[in-house]
Specification:
About 70% of the residues lie in helices and about 0% in strands. It is built from four helices and no strands. The two termini are about 15 Å apart. About 20% of the residues are buried.
């Protein structure tokens, strides 16, 4: 995997996808994109949307920071093993999210988000394996 998929390619791919995702979540939060088209169509009201989108934004920022630390864009003192565990967990979460997207009621999530979360799962697995 390391020869086929370099750490920098995986990291930059994650940064690209998560940056776009961050913009997407802000568009939902500000009402530009209807929240009914997200979260598998399961959100019932605006208050739920604010909570879910806020959590998503915070997690996305955390992922961006972790990637930045892993590849040296951010010079923060974080244990290598801790980052590896974090990326293994992210890989699992994105893998499970991929399965959830496959069964979403919304075609956007089913056909657009599914491949993105699968790619993120693979890229996070690659960063988790970095020594």
């Amino acid at each position: 995997m390391k020869k086929f998929l370099t750490q920098n390619f995986a990291a930059n791919g994650i940064l690209l996808i998560t940056s776009a995702t961050l913009v997407f979540h802000f568009l939902i939060l500000f009402g530009i994109i209807p929240f009914e088209n997200t979260w598998g169509g399961r959100l019932e009201n605006r208050e739920q949307m604010i909570v879910f989108e806020s959590i998503s934004i915070l997690i996305t920022i955390l992922v961006i920071i972790a990637v930045g630390i892993r590849i040296g864009y951010l010079n923060w003192d974080v244990k290598h093993k801790l980052l590896s565990v974090f990326f293994y967990i992210l890989s699992l979460v994105f893998g499970l999210n991929t399965l959830g997207n496959i069964f979403a009621d919304n075609d956007f999530e089913k056909y657009f988000a599914t491949p993105l979360t699968l790619i993120l799962a693979i890229f996070c697995l690659r960063l988790a394996k970095e020594k």
